[in-house]
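Appendix B, Record 12. Input sequence as logged:
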Amino acid sequence: MSNYPNGTFNLRVYGIYINDGKLLISDELFNGIKMTKFPGGGLKYGEGTVECLEREFMEEFGYKIEVKEHFYTTDYFQKALYFEKTQLISIYYIIDIISENNIPILNKHNEATEKEPQILRLSPINQLSVEDFTFPIDQKVVEMIKSRF
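Logged structural output:
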């Protein structure tokens, strides 16, 4: 018998796209809450993590991507913020955007609105702070990116 409480897992897959010293960031408005995070989304039953990331980028942004390498998977317990009794596991890949539309370089933090609930932007890595990101796992990944790139 396990000592672990009954719960569930929320698997998320995110892309890290870096171009000319700039990191791709997603500013979103979800259920009235503004958040800044990496682009990506939830793994659906029956798909692999790379397939999930390819689907998310195509569905949400119309971008065809190529996954280059695994970067990080959550290696500690993180409770999901919006779901009770749910453990969040996030997987991050370094990607390349093959069919790149014009990604805006915005200076303002989180311009997402009800009319446009998700906005991508490229932000210089050397100007990023962990506090720019909403979620604890993303904040850890930003620290890792800043030390590597």
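The two ends are 45 Å apart (CA to CA).
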